[in-house]
Amino acid sequence: MSERKDVQPSGVPVPCLTCDARSGGVCGTLDAEQLASLAKASSKKRLESGAELIGDAQTVEAYSNILSGVVKLTKGLPDGREQIVGLQFAPDFLGRPFQDESAITAHAATNVVLCSFPKRTLEMLIKQSPRLEHFLLNQTLRELDEARDWMLTLGRKNALEKVASYLLLIARYIDPAVDPDSQSIAFDLPMSRLEIADFLGLTIETVSRQLTKLRIDGVIAVSQNRHIVVANPERLRMRSGC
Amino acid sequence: MSERKDVQPSGVPVPCLTCDARSGGVCGTLDAEQLASLAKASSKKRLESGAELIGDAQTVEAYSNILSGVVKLTKGLPDGREQIVGLQFAPDFLGRPFQDESAITAHAATNVVLCSFPKRTLEMLIKQSPRLEHFLLNQTLRELDEARDWMLTLGRKNALEKVASYLLLIARYIDPAVDPDSQSIAFDLPMSRLEIADFLGLTIETVSRQLTKLRIDGVIAVSQNRHIVVANPERLRMRSGC
DNA sequence: CCGGAATCTTGATTTCGATCAAACTGCCGG
DNA sequence: CCGGCAGTTTGATCGAAATCAAGATTCCGG
């Protein structure tokens, strides 16, 4: 789904004018001229939940900004066991710079809107723009911090603590200031029970049982499977092991 | 342990002339002048196995190059459970740029030699040198790839597969071309059983039992606890789950 | 609004790794 | 060379999560 790439008097391409990724994403680091050249080569894509964005060991020829939705990154074992190794939200940059083959798989966990551009175009811009590279370094460092936090959860927490940690993770994405104020918070899970299990290194059944336990203990309320209300986030945090 | 910072005719500081980190590490990205200013502020440090390099939630005022030895990065839960979230080898750069408080702890896993320099000095150089920032982005991307590989191991492999994967990881560090050629390989483990357990999300006893199993099956030979001989790396790889 | 498929929950049982407990080994100082 | 101790191995038992097996909901298309 391609869009017109007209350039406004200010020099900012028209489709970028109202784009959220321009403030928080890579595009925010570019000057008008660079943004124009990127916009010329870019296109907006809408993907249904479940669609594959990047295949394992597949040559990647595009990078993207996530404009909305949740993308899950997974790795698998030859016998079919799967582990989700990262979640990305808008306005994250999606793709592994400086490497032709992807070692991971990316899927849309919800409906997703992307702004995609060719690998080559971005790599040219990286060479010209230290600010862009600085932005990428910062996002990568943040992802590394998150991955290491999650390693602690995977390696050392029990099933209940894992599920509580997952709910907190999602709650904090919805509202970053979630536990200090201890307000009640409600949200829809962006993932199925199977996906949650693959994220936590558990089985579907164990995830379900821990959710039931939290429900019985009055820590959360669940309706229609995906909708969660956390009455008291502090009680949830206490059960998360940290 | 400070050294003389004399500058050679070529412009390269004397102590850097013979330093391995100058080819593979951050210093390789600097010109003679930048290297001189970094060398002026740097000092070589020797640390005993077990020494703490960076404390959790402690203000970090130094970055380092690892000149030799193995550094382990750990995260802990309030109740004392621990998880190793990364291993770093020479000539890795050690430290979390652009953040004052460390969220992780770093310890010397073996005797370690570092070349340390003040945070400020390096951050100044980063601003001047896109090549340096590019190097850091590349190392960070590599660490992120490793962390995600390890998440799959932590979340989805059983105890035997985890121990086999760990042995392969160390063997590959000793000799990167380890399984294609399937030559026998021998090495000393840089970590105790407790550290291996904390790396794998297991207990000491389970690690020991899996090593015994691999020994009985003839996949490895163990002498004096730390010395390992892998007769046939391919058989080890087959037990690693991938 | 109905029926069927997909997803989720609950229950029974098994299994793997944790825990508890005791012996063994290698290392170091005296 | 001996004794002590930290680190490791081995054994017995327990428990948490996986697996196997039905049911119950939710979702959707007709």
UniProtKB/TrEMBL annotation, chains A, B:
InterPro entries found in the cross-reference section: cNMP-bd_dom (IPR000595), cNMP-bd_dom_sf (IPR018490), Env_Response_Regulators (IPR050397), HTH_CRP (IPR012318), RmlC-like_jellyroll (IPR014710), Tscrpt_reg_HTH_Crp-type_CS (IPR018335), WH-like_DNA-bd_sf (IPR036388), WH_DNA-bd_sf (IPR036390)
Gene Ontology terms: cellular component: cytosol
Record carries keyword Transcription: yes
UniProt entry tagged with the keyword Metal-binding: no
Domain HTH crp-type: residue ranges: 157-234
Pfam families reported for this sequence: cNMP_binding, HTH_Crp_2
Lineage: superkingdom: Bacteria
Keywords linked to the UniProt accession: DNA-binding, Transcription, Transcription regulation
GO terms for MF: DNA binding; DNA-binding transcription factor activity
PANTHER family: CRP FAMILY TRANSCRIPTIONAL REGULATORY PROTEIN, FUMARATE AND NITRATE REDUCTION REGULATORY PROTEIN
Protein name in the entry: Transcriptional regulator
Source species: Pararhizobium antarcticum
